[in-house]
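Minutes, methods subgroup
Present: GH (chair), OT, SY

1. OT presented the first of two proteins processed in the latest run. Sequence and structure tokens recorded below as shown on screen.
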Amino acid sequence: MKSRTISILTFSILAVFILTGCKKDDERRKNSIFLIEFDPESPANLNFGDNVVITTDYYITHPDGARFWVQPFTDGNISPGYVYSSSGIFEGTGIREVGISVNEGDTAEVVVDQLRVVCSTPDQDETLYEEFIDVNYTFGN
């Protein structure tokens, strides 16, 4: 009887861990964007106007859909001369390629040290997801 009780208890604990893990994974995926591939990979030296193409994996659960962007950041602010892909309204799950770049500006080079990933409601009144990813892209002549 004691062995059966331990087996049932072990099974119950395992089931709770599995179910809790799935719930956390579902919550993590709710209105979220994952950057899965960079071309070129970071670190990289690029000319002004060259593109970094980023493949994203998106999970949109908002009932009206959502817009999302990946923006280049330098020292905690949006990069000078920045360029990034605009966004339509996305729903469900899928893969999307977006681009970022830096155009020539007042400096000889611009170092993009982070990418801001932001997902908002279609009217952009509410941010649904935001994350900063460390990178190292140097744009120059």
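2. SY then presented the second protein from the same run.
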Amino acid sequence: MTSQAFQHIIVRYAVGDRIFTEGDLGATMYIVQSGKVRLFRISAEHKRTDAVLEKGDFFGEASVIDGLSRTSSAEAIEDAELVEINATTFDRMIKANIEIAVRMLRKLSLRLRDAERRLDDLGPAPAPLAPAPRVLALGAAAGEGRSAVRLEVEGESMTFPLSDSDSLIGRYDPITDLKPDVDLSSLDLKRTVSRSHARIFRTSEGRFIAEEVGAMNSTLVNGTRLVTGRPHRLADGDRITLGAVKLVFRS
């Protein structure tokens, strides 16, 4: 989310350092460059973890937007390097790059949906179980065979079947509990793939892939880098690279 056109401050925190505390007035937000940060609240003198954030995640944006006090506390659970952005810089970034605003709106929308779901769960009647997330297992289960349309991990036997309409590729997002259709979390230990990185969808003309707005690292098809938001038609055997993860499209 950072841009070379704007000055920003890099701040570093050691394990256990408090970044801010619930109730504090704040005028800055943060983007995690490295390490991990925990957002939590104190309930009955115990820490209740709201989210664990890692590279590419942002937090504290509510105080920048509305100027109100912090609604949770934040601390480093690994040595962390953060980009600190004040309200003035934030305003300039949003005006200069609409992709930043789109990514933030998407994240805030998902958080709102999650909050609404939690409120429903607190209703007088027992809340129904949430629909099973569309997280696709690595590899086909014994006896099931392979899906006709799928992504194969290059050089391995792992397979991700693709839905008949639309499949989001990325990593699990602990902030929103969003699980993509093709979850590369276990393959991408260095976190080079964005939470919402790319999407494969079907039209009357075939299968297409498009990089999502806000993807931090590039998406390549047969070595050619995709333009964000511009669909690229796929053919059987195409090699797709997302960050450091290499896949093969099969139809």
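Chair's summary of item 2: Confidence is low (pLDDT under 50) at residues 1-5, 132-146.
Next meeting: continue with the remaining queue.
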